[in-house]
Amino acid sequence: MKKHYAGSSRKLFIGAMTLVAAAGSLSAQNPDPNQTFEQVVSGMQPIRWFDFRAGGNSSNLAALSQNFSPYGIAGTNPTHQEWEAYQTFNPDNFRFYSDGLYLTATLPWWGGMWPGGIASGQIWMKEGFAPNMTGYNTYAIMIRMKASPIKGAWSQSWLYSRDWWGNDGSEIDNPEVMNSAYQNQYDWTGYNHGPGDGGVFFDKRTNPWTWNPGVDFSADYHNFELVWTPNATYKYVDGQLILGQQFWWTATSPAQLGVGLAVGSNEIDLPGLIPASWGDFPSSVGVQYITVWAK
Asked: Could you tell me which residues come within 8 angstroms of residue 167 by beta carbon, excluding any fewer than 6 positions away?
C-alpha cells in the first residue's frame, strides 16, 4: 500500500475549494458536491451496521469475530517497515468500553520500541464491496472514529483488495491521521491509489497533502465518510465534502474495509513516524460504529 505525507514545503491552495474540468466527465447520477453526506445517503439503503458500543451488535470479541478478521491481505506481515506486530483477537489489543472498541497498541513483555516490538490491533470486514461488482452501483461508508494522539501513531481506515489474486494496488483511504515529522493529529489525509486513480474535481484541503480544520482528531470521535461510485470517490469529514476524485476500481476482487493503528516506521518516505516514549503506551484508535449504505 502506497502512502504519502505532508512535506516541509507546504504551499496553501489559492482558495479552499477547487473544481476542475474532470467533473464534467462524471455521471449525472453521481452526488452533487454541494450536498452534505447526510443528504447524499438519504436516498440510499443502509445494508450493514456494526455498533461497537456497550449493548451494540459488535460489542465483544465473540460478536466482532463473526464479521471481522484481525488480518487483511497482508496477513501477519507489517507493511512500510512498520514497527507493530498485529495480533489475533485478544482482550488487550481489542478493548471494549462503553463508548466503543479501542484498537490498542501496547508494549508487551516480549517487545519494546523497535521494529516488531509493538503489539497492536486492526479489524478487516470479511465481506467485500465494490460498485457494479457486488450487487450495487454505489456504496457509502461511515466510520465514527477517534485517532491516537501519540508520536509515531498512524491511525487509519482504508479499502483494499480482499484477495491477493485480485490485488493490483487499488486502494481508497479515509482517514489517515499520521503523527510524523510534518503532520499530526490535527491533519486529515485521504488518498486513492492504483491504476484507476484519476483527477481531482473537488478539493477543500489546506494544502496539496492534508486538510487542517484546527480540530484535534484524537480528542473526540468524528465521522469519516465515503461515497463510492463506479467512477469517483467522495470523501467527507463530519458530513462535509473534503475531496472528490475520479477513481475506477480495477482490482479483480472486491474491496475489504480495514481500520487499524500502526505505530512506527523506518521507511524513508515516512519521516518522523517514530514513537517517542514508553510512557505513551498503551494508545488506541477508538471505533464507535461502522455503517454501509448502497443503491
From this structure: 73, 160, 161, 251, 253
Please state whether the peptide bond connecting residue 282 to the residue before it is cis, i.e. omega within 30 degrees of 0. yes
Pick the CATH number of 21-294 from 3.90.1150.10, 2.60.120.200, 3.30.2310.20, 3.40.50.720: 2.60.120.200
Q: State how beta strands 118-120 and 84-86 pair.
A: parallel
> In 3-state terms, what secondary structure has residue 25?
helix
Kindly report the number of other CB atoms within 10 A of residue 55's CB atom. Answer: 7
CA distance 273 to 115: 12
What CA–CA distance (Å, rounded) separates 266 from 281? Answer: 19
Contacts of 252 (CB under 8 A, 6+ apart): 165, 166, 168
Q: From CA 204, how far away is CA 211, in angstroms rounded?
A: 7
Predicted structure pTM score = 0.92
| Residue 271: predicted pLDDT | 95
Residue in 152, 101, 142 with CA at minimum distance from that of residue 123: 101
**pLDDT tens column, 94-147:** 999 999 999 999 999 999 999 999 999 999 999 999 999 999 999 999 999 999
Residues 160-172: what's their mean pLDDT?
95
Polymer length in residues for the chain: 295
Do 239 and 36 touch, CB atoms closer than 8 A?
yes
Banded model confidence at residue 214, pLDDT cuts 50, 70, 90: very high
